[in-house]
TrEMBL record:
Entry keyword set: 4Fe-4S, Cytoplasm, Iron, Iron-sulfur, Metal-binding, S-adenosyl-L-methionine, Transferase, tRNA processing
Binding site for [4Fe-4S] cluster 1: C10, C46, C79
UniProt xrefs under SMART domains: Elp3
Catalyzed reaction equations: N(6)-dimethylallyladenosine(37) in tRNA + (sulfur carrier)-SH + AH2 + 2 S-adenosyl-L-methionine = 2-methylsulfanyl-N(6)-dimethylallyladenosine(37) in tRNA + (sulfur carrier)-H + 5'-deoxyadenosine + L-methionine + A + S-adenosyl-L-homocysteine + 2 H(+)
Gene (UniProt): miaB
Protein name: tRNA-2-methylthio-N(6)-dimethylallyladenosine synthase
PROSITE patterns: MTTASE_N, MTTASE_RADICAL, RADICAL_SAM
Length: 459
């Protein structure tokens, strides 16, 4: 079987796609990188907003047309698969295999079955399952928990991914050891809400440490860089910041989604914190980690959001001074409380607010990024940039970084980079040698007469 997986959504979905891919390979499948080359196409779906759902619908339309011309098995996994909405779509587009986020290990059973297979249960075996490490990669994701116990009124995730279940630290540490053996140098710990690791459905789980303790354990493993996502401000505690400060491998990078700067909107979102409480957390972070890079998520145009509420989001942005933000227009998702109880705001109003927020974000990102010009950063270069004369990667603060290859450095690794130029989205710099000298890239040689006989790339 030749299989191809298409992944939408978040880092958790990327992790799950890798998990299913490794199952497929162990069943003897060849992984191919296009629909044309595949006889099994699996889409890993996201249901958090309407747009990713529309993309899946249009892709499934194309696949149904392909299926009419040649044998093809079509599968759908992930968050949308778990919803009635997704199952309707699956019926309409003649999807053969449907796997919810808790049934991923049923992939083998699904492919053996001669008829349509729909797996929608949350199975405990998933938490102990350790996928083989990705090959030839310096960065990896590591899931420490699944599901979510919060009930933010806009969010479909508690429905798609079920209640929170923390993974046992033994399974996490075993998976980490395998990643390290495979050469991984940066690990991102994943959970819908990592701060409540070890407290499932309001109860501390015996034998599972707190997230702060887990960070210290992972830090002692020898891994060079640790990141984590996502934190919920409601469960945010100072001990996590202290563990970050005391554990050199943990990067000074915090993604703390605020969603809105207005306490009134936060209440309607059922976020369980106020603007003031959120700002207290930010003050705690800045006190212990003065160089922390701060990212957030913001939803604009939540039902009932007034101009004053939106102004509070803008002023909160200034007060925190975020390095960057993921900004979303509110999308009314069937099955969420806000879809049922609140009226959606007009599209133009939401779009206009998003534009104003993006302007604010750009202003801050360029200001924050420019402060790195002239400084040296530790950068994990994961491989060639779009132009193969350059390498691309990320700093410890998660800034995307691009450098020209130089001094014989042309392969992935962790290097020191002197930043020379900044945009709101990217830092550009040069590699340094072991003595801290800038490595100038080789000037591009004029082609020799003999070399001209070989085809030149199109300019
Ligand atoms: N509409 C818009 N954005 C949403 N998010 C979650 N649900 C919605 C929705 N219904 C955003 C939140 C969350 C991120 C993953 O997606 O900002 O943090
Ligand atoms: Fe990830 Fe949420 Fe989308 Fe599911 S719905 S894929 S958890 S972002």
């Amino acid at each position: 079987m030749r299989a191809h997986i298409i992944t939408y959504g978040c880092q958790m979905n990327e992790y799950d796609s890798h998990l299913v891919e490794s199952q497929l390979v162990s069943l003897g499948a060849d992984m191919v990188d296009s629909v044309d080359a595949a006889d099994f196409v699996l889409i890993n779906t996201c249901a958090v907003r309407g747009k990713p759902v529309d993309k899946v619908r249009s892709l499934l339309g194309d696949l149904r047309a392909t299926k009419a011309r040649r044998p093809l098995v079509v599968g759908m996994m992930g968050c949308l698969a778990q919803l009635e909405e997704g199952q309707q779509i699956a019926r309409k587009f003649e999807v053969d295999v449907l796997l919810g986020p808790g049934s991923l290990l049923d992939i083998g059973k699904a492919l053996e079955s001669n008829e349509r297979f729909w797996g929608l249960q949350f199975k405990d075996e998933l938490h102990d399952h350790i996928p083989p490490p990705p090959q030839g990669r310096l960065q990896a994701h590591l899931t420490i928990m699944r599901g979510c116990d919060h009930h933010c009124t806009y969010c479909i995730v508690p429905t798609t991914r079920g209640p929170q279940v923390s993974r046992h630290p033994d399974a996490i540490m075993r998976e980490l050891d395998m990643l390290l053996e495979a050469g991984v140098q940066e690990v991102t710990l994943l959970g819908q809400n990592v701060n409540s690791y070890g407290i499932d459905q309001g109860k501390r789980v015996p034998g599972i440490p707190s997230f702060a303790e887990l960070l210290r354990m992972v830090g002692a493993s020898g891994v060079k860089r640790i990141k984590f996502t996502t934190s919920h401000p409601m469960n945010f505690t100072e001990d996590v910041v202290l563990a970050m400060r005391d554990t050199p491998a943990v990067c000074d990078f915090i993604h703390l989604p605020v969603q809105s700067g207005s306490s009134r909107v936060l209440r309607r979102m059922a976020r369980e914190y106020t603007r003031e409480k959120y700002l207290e957390h930010i003050a705690t972070i800045k006190k212990h980690l003065p160089n922390a890079v701060l990212f957030t998520d913001i939803i604009v145009g939540f039902p009932g959001e007034t101009e004053e509420d939106f102004q509070e989001t803008l002023s909160l942005y200034d007060e925190v001074g975020y390095d960057n933000a993921y900004m979303f227009i509110y999308s009314a998702r069937p099955g969420t409380p806000s879809y049922k109880h609140f009226e959606d705001l007009p599209r133009e109003l939401k779009t206009e607010r998003l534009q104003r927020l993006i302007a604010k974000q750009k202003e801050w990102s360029i200001r924050k990024n420019s402060a790195y010009v002239g400084r040296d950063l530790e950068v994990l270069l994961r491989g060639d940039a779009h132009d193969p004369a350059f390498l691309e990667g990320h700093s410890r603060g998660n800034h995307p970084v691009v450098v020209p290859k130089a001094g014989g450095i042309d392969r992935p690794g962790i290097y020191t980079v002197r930043v020379e130029h900044a945009t709101p989205h990217m830092l550009y710099g040069k590699l340094l040698d072991a003595e801290g000298r800038v490595l100038e890239p080789q000037p591009v040689a004029a082609p020799e007469a003999a070399a001209l006989s070989s085809p030149l790339p199109m300019l």
